[in-house]
Structures are given as C-alpha cells and as structure tokens.
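Appendix B, record 7
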Amino acid sequence: MSILVNGTEAPLPSDPRTSLLDFMREQLGLTGTKRGCGQGACGACTILVDGERILSCLALAIQYAGRAVTTIEGLSNDDGLHPLQRAFVECDGLQCGYCTPGQICSAVAMMSELKRFAPSNITPVLSASRIEITRDEIRERMSGNLCRCGAHNGIIDAIESVLGEVG
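Structure tokens (predicted):
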C-alpha cells in the first residue's frame, strides 16, 4: 500500500501509529508542514488530501492509503509559486513564517469551498448560488489557522488579492 504525496507514490510507514505529519516530515523529508500544538488547535500542520484541508497532526498516515496528499511543497510547479504563495510574500502575509504553510494550504482549500458554494458559519443564506466574499467571510473560513506573530491582516490581504483575480 502507498500514498500519493505531491504527485509521488510513497510506501506507507511500517508503524501504523505514525501520524501523517511525522510520516511527511521524518520519512519523506517534507519539512514545510509544521508541528504546532499537536492537538489540532492551531492549523500549522494543515495540508490538502484530495483537495480538502486536514490537520495532519491528528491523522494517521495509514488512513490515507491511496489518496492524494498535497503539502506546501506540492503547490508550486515548474511555472513557479502558487498564486497564494506569491500573494503572501507580496502582501506581507507572514512574519516568522511558521504558520504560513498551513495558512496557504488552508486558503487553497477555502478557495475550492467557495467555488462549490460551501457555506461557512457566517454565510447569511445557506442555499445561495453565490457567496459574497467579505473580509469577515475570509476570517471565518481561516479561523482554524492561528498566527502568533499578528500577520492576520496581511494574510487576509493576500487571500483577498487572489480571490479578486479569480472571482
């Protein structure tokens, strides 16, 4: 059994208790994803599985056999950085950078949610065929990702700038 990480198949760890975070960092050398709280409260370990955001510190690698995992390293391609990666730099959406990989992965998933019209806790009309993208809507959708440095305004600016390009 294997897992597809950033487009490359990797054999699952021999120990079924290995977290997805530890598997990526320690066995695959993908250290972009960070360990924050280890309890799923900070979002530093956020990655994408089949396009959905998950907290890799709470997931066992074996649970994701046969699934497609994307980390911060997998967002860029031969053309360069993902638009959100560029926007975080341009809008000063980072300070120490520790939470940045999780923030960006979460924002990528959030953009997919918006395209599917998936409501948030503050979306006024749950059955709407369009969701108005406000700064509050972005904040709500990103609330699972903490930044202890206080770069929240830059993070929201970065996401808003990319949403403006796509929207």
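Remarks on this record: Residues 24 and 130 are 36 Å apart (CA to CA). The chain has two domains: 2-75, 83-166.
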